[in-house]
């Protein structure tokens, strides 16, 4: 195996090639780099990357995501306590998180001197070289819920992680892992508090179970920098469990709205919406599958409702599925290599570009701008900055815009396509009480558009 030059790292920036990664911080409802530049989180879930991809494959994946405009990659450090990487290296001694299996040296040409953690180092460094941040889940929630991780062992393991990765500027910590905070609460609190104590420089959140949000358990904890919710993979009709608190169906914007209302104010994000090409409800491959239009809808709905970014996911990418695999989870069809160019993955960057093209830190959700907000797929989320307003329609239905709410005498209007990022001029208008805007095309699910209104 060829040796690749690792980036030179020091806390503050990671420099190599053309990329520069700066540490992140909270800025009001948003994230920013430490030099106060806006940071729109456009994430991808590559949960099993450390275990499934070798160095060359990891390089291919990271470079593809860089080119497509992603800037955060969400990965499990330990999917299971018996985790091994593509080279057969185990992460732990005797499946004990308190005893990571570390060897001397990091020579990929010498199997005895290249271990699981060297491979994690390699991926982290190559990501930094490409301007990518890694949002790392220390240990997936199912292992903890099963009783295999005690608070004492969790503390030792967390200290190992922060000692090893605390000086890398491109790290974000995702405590939890598809689990309710109330399940094994003592362990999650131990990990969160130890992360904050031993690594005060990096952002920390909690990745919760589907149809829940981190704010339910940890909003006031000083180790939680921002909230994360998992809107999940079920349809309106499948979201019927009477015991659940969050009866939001597919309305992921309601999680953003909920977290936005809390005190103290903290940023929030949908860290796991429905994945492209995963079956409705997740588990039955015979069900219809979520498409590119659906992942676009979840993105614009949540961001316009106040989320600071968005995480995309694909069924094959999140598990790094191979066509040669004996079986796949959740009925994955394409290989991860084929899925790199999925329609939704190519389109996510247009959401990021739209938000970055306007003033950033002054954006707030504002439904008063819409006279016909609607429900379910007809919902029209709206947000605004000092000199612009944005309204999203998933179905291409008429938008009744309350122009007088802007306080502007004249305004300019445009259509923006979430499918290709093209902006077309509608015209200039006097600010009448209500202006009607009819999107191009025939109203139907997936004929989605953003109405851009600017001060004239």
From TrEMBL:
Domain Apiosidase-like catalytic positions: 27-361
Keyword Signal listed: yes
Pfam assignment, any one: Collagen_bind_2
Keywords for this protein: Signal
Residues in Putative collagen-binding domain copies: 364-454
InterPro entries: Apiosidase-like_cat_dom, Collagen-bd_put, GH
Range of residues in the leader sequence: 1-19
Organism superkingdom: Bacteria
Record has Lyase as a keyword: no
This protein's name: Putative collagen-binding domain of a collagenase
């Amino acid at each position: 195996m060829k040796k690749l030059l690792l980036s030179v790292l020091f806390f503050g920036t990671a420099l190599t090639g053309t990329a520069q990664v700066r540490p992140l911080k909270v800025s009001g409802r948003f994230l920013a780099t430490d030099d106060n530049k806006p940071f729109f989180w456009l994430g991808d879930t590559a949960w099993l990357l450390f275990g499934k991809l070798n160095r060359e494959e990891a390089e291919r994946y990271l470079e593809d995501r860089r080119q497509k405009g992603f800037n955060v990659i969400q990965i499990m450090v330990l999917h299971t306590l018996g985790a091994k990487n593509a080279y057969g290296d185990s992460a732990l001694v005797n499946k004990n998180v308190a005893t990571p299996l570390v060897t001397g040296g990091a020579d990929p040409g010498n199997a005895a001197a290249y271990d699981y953690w060297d491979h994690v180092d390699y991926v982290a460094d190559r990501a930094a070289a490409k301007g990518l941040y890694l949002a790392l889940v220390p240990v997936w929630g199912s292992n903890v819920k099963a009783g295999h991780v005690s608070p004492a062992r969790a503390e030792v393991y967390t200290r190992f992680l922060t000692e090893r990765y605390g000086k890398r500027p491109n790290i974000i910590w995702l405590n939890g892992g598809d689990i309710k905070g109330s399940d094994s609460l003592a362990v999650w609190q131990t990990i969160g508090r130890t992360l904050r104590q031993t690594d005060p420089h990096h952002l920390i959140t909690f990745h919760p179970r589907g149809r829940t949000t981190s704010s339910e358990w940890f909003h006031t904890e000083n180790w939680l920098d921002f909230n994360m919710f998992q809107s999940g993979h079920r349809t309106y009709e499948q979201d019927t469990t009477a015991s659940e608190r969050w009866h939001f169906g597919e309305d992921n914007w309601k999680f953003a709205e909920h977290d936005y209302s809390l005190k103290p104010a903290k940023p929030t994000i949908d860290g796991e919406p429905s994945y492209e090409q995963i079956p409705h409800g997740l588990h039955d491959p015979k069900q219809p599958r979520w498409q590119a239009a659906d992942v676009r809808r979840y993105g614009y709905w949540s961001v316009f409702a106040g989320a600071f970014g968005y995480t995309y996911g694909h069924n094959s990418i999140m598990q790094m599925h191979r066509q040669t695999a004996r079986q796949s989870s959740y009925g994955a069809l394409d290989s991860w290599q084929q899925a790199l160019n999925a329609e939704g993955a190519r389109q996510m960057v247009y959401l990021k570009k739209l938000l970055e093209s306007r003033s950033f830190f002054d954006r707030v959700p504002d439904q008063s701008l819409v006279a016909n907000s609607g429900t379910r797929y007809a919902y029209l989320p709206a947000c605004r900055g000092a000199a612009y307003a944005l309204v999203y329609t998933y179905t291409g239905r008429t938008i009744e815009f309350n122009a007088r709410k802007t306080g502007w005498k004249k305004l300019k209007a445009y259509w923006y396509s979430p499918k290709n990022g093209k902006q077309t001029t509608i015209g200039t208008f006097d600010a009448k009480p209500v202006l009607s805007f009819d999107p191009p095309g025939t109203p139907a699910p997936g004929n989605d558009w953003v109405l851009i209104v600017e001060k004239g």
